[in-house]
Amino acid sequence: MTDIRIATFKDFVGELTAIYRRTELPTFQITSSSSVREFIYPYFDEVMDDHEEVKVIHLNRKNQVVNVHHLSSGTDNGSLISTKDVLRYAILIKTNSLLLVHNHPSGNLNPSEADKQISNKLRDASKLLDITTLDSIIITREGYYSFADEGLF
What we know:
Keywords: Hydrolase, Metal-binding, Metalloprotease, Protease, Zinc. The protein contains 4 helices and 5 strands, in the order H-H-E-E-H-E-H-E-E. The chain is α+β, with helices and mostly antiparallel strands and 153 residues long.
């Protein structure tokens, strides 16, 4: 790398760190899948019935929320999720564990095959990096579906 590229990269990381530190979340401890829904629901309220969004909740060792990362926005029936992007960001902020959450605008709480595949892939890949994927949760206005509660995690 040239000196200019190194300096630019260091500036970028410094700015990103400053932005991350300025984003303060109220201390909220995740104790169950229902507490995840309670915490994350406001982040989806405006888009719940319109299109899919995927968010990743990052937690510290005490299962307190340290960050909510908007991963992607999709259509009314799907959204693209990259395991690589989830884990890249988790490594960057040095998270201990994470939760994958997305909405189903249709109101259907049943996971699709794609939901199952990405959830399992993320769970397995994160283990290799000593990051625990605690759950994958689907939310709707009527309720939520937890992979962990259903014994799939």
